Amino acid sequence: MSSSLTLPAPGKAAGRNRRLLEILGGVAIAGTYLYLVLNQPADIVNGLSSGATLLALAGFLLGAVLLIVGVLPTLPTSTLVLLPVALVLNIVLGQFVGSTLVPFYLDAIGTVLIAALAGPAAGAATGALSSIVWSLFNPTVLPFAAGAALIGFLAGVAARYGAFRRFYFAPVAGFLTGIVAGVFSAPIAAFVYGGTSGLATGAVVSAFRAMGDSLLGAITKQALISDPMDKAIVFTIVAVLLYALPRRTTLRFPFISRFRVLAGTRGA
Amino acid sequence: MARLHPLTLLTAAVVPAVATLAIDRWPVSAVVLAVLVGLVAASGLGRTVLPAAAVVLAPLMLSLLLTHGFFFVEGQTVLWSAGPLHVTTEGLSFAADMGLRTAVFVVAFLAFSFSVQPADLLSVLTGLRVPPQFGFVLCSTLTLAPAITARARRISQAQQARGLVVGLGLPGRVRAVQQQAVPLVLALLHEAGSRAEFLEARGFGAPGPRSSYRLVPDSPGQRVFRWTALLLLVLFLVLWFGAVG
Question: How far is B38 from chain A (nearest CA, A)?
Fold first, then answer.
């Protein structure tokens, strides 16, 4: 799509400010996570002090919002119109799978799809936005906005380095993303909710607790079982979808042709 | 009831949610929850907010009860035990602490999202210099959801008309899902592409400020309420954490 001939071109300063917001958002999320991990109590019975929980919530939310505000205006319209579609896919599937007795989530298909089509920044913004919009129906997902942004970012990085170029790479990349995502979201689940929000995941946590694990330990182990499997499935589904798309659609995204995300899509 | 300003509604949700989270004692959370439920029911939102909250909270509460009710290894006061199961006072009180404070948070925010008009929220956000793209994504997700559900139903009917039979066992089911999901996603992406052209032709991607034609009524009373409530909350947090920690 050509740029407008009548409207002024965006200035360089605006671009720098956006980049600054993205970096600040990332720093807020990483700093909050470090704070949470370093301040974890030895004894979960007393819990994390409620002040630390509040600070963690505020830090993650601030980071997610900064990322959204920084990334959204830089996205081309062709990517932006995909976001609502991705969000609906995430929310509908996530709500459906969350209510079944499977210890998976499948709430990131839309996020990973956008990340593969438009890159890490777009993926991160989609993840964060998805949690914020979903929280209008299910407020409990709000604290995981930063984690969802991380998943989108990692999926974009994986796509950039060719995770979707070969069919068998996709589940592997998903598995690795899932390990990072699980380790990231376990402290949030432990300190904010004291457990998981689904019955099936709760049963897995209970099994580890019965074997004498600490609460954070049990939730981390549960996350390390659920998340890598879940993300491997999600990445595979996205790979199937990407190759089912007509080339005319996929090649409209500069990210795809520039980094040869899909096999046989070398850009001109 | 007069239409309240979105920020007033947001303040009314944030203040009790943050305060209960800070106090973190289940009797307090229970009282706040009871008051909130009463207010929601009195304002006529009960029919929509309370079932939605129940859908969210039921699995969470059951999961907490399962995890902490039976397997709280740190618990000292054992009420009942059988094999690996130990029902302890500490476990039950921990589950109640976590569950009830989350319940307050969920009910407060659902009450906000069911009472706010998305268009009002958008025009307020535009005034606060939030990127206009955010508004587009939010509103179009809310309007797209029913359209996508309808389309998914049509695709499933079309595939059944051409003889799709959901086979027995996992492979058959996977094939059935694939035959419905792939056309759905392809159609959605294709439609999004043509929508992009229309939007672009109307200056959607152009930089610069946007003006909103929607006036959101606000009143001095609401402004005073928002600032007082937030100030009181900050004051409370400072005093509370100063006293506790």
Answer: 20
Distance from CA of A26 to the nearest CA of B (A): 19
For residue A101, is it within any domain? yes
Q: Please, which residues have CB within 8 angstroms of residue A169's CB and are 6 or more apart in sequence?
A: A162, A163
Q: Tokens 């997902």 map to which residue?
A: A141
The pLDDT tens digits of the residues spanning B75-102 come to: 777 777 777 777 888 888 888 888 999 9
CB atoms B62 and A202 under 8 Å: yes
Q: Considering only CB atoms, which chain B residues are within 8 Å of A218?
A: 67
Q: Which of A76, A139, A209 sits opposite B105 (nearest CB)?
A: A139
Question: In sequence order, what DSSP letters do the residues of A186-213 get, joined into one string?
Answer: HHHIIIIISS-SSHHHHHHHHHHHHTT-
Q: How far apart are CA A219 and CA B40, in angstroms?
A: 34
Residues of A in contact with B245 (CB under 8 A): 49, 51
User: Tokens for A129?
Assistant: 């936005």
Indicate yes or no: CB of A198 within 8 angstroms of CB of B140.
no
Does A93 or A165 have the greater pLDDT score?
A165
Ramachandran category for residue A195: left, alpha or beta (phi over 0 → left; psi -120 to 50 → alpha): left
Identify the closest residue of chain B to A126 by CA–CA distance. B137
Q: Give yes or no for residue A3 having a pLDDT over 60.
A: no
With CA atoms as reference, the chain A residue closest to B206 would be A7
**Residue A131 near residue A142, CB atoms below 8 Å:** yes
Task: For an interface test with A, give the residue of B25, B62, B63 to mutate (most A CBs within 10 A).
Answer: B63
Position A2 scores a pLDDT of 52
pLDDT digits over A59-84, tens only? Answer: 999 999 999 989 988 888 888 999 99
Residue A173 carries which side chain, given as an amino acid letter? A
What ipTM was estimated for this complex?
0.85
CATH number at residue A34: 1.10.1760.20
Beta-carbon separation of B144 and A44 below 8 A: no
State which residues form the domain around A92.
15-258
Q: What is the DSSP letter of A74?
A: G
Question: A8 lies in a domain?
Answer: no
Whether residue A197 and residue B206 make contact (CB cut-off 8 A), yes or no, is no
Chain A CB contacts of B97 below 8 Å: 47, 194
Domain membership of residue A27 (yes or no) is yes
Which chain B residues are within 8 Å of A138, Cβ to Cβ? 56
Confidence of residue A7 (pLDDT cuts 50, 70, 90): low
A268 pLDDT band, cuts 50/70/90, is very low
Q: Where are the domains of chain B?
A: 6-116+217-244, 130-201
What is the C-alpha to C-alpha distance for residues A129 and B140, in angstroms, rounded to an integer? 13
Q: How many domains does chain A have?
A: 1
Q: Is there a domain that residue A265 lies in? A: no
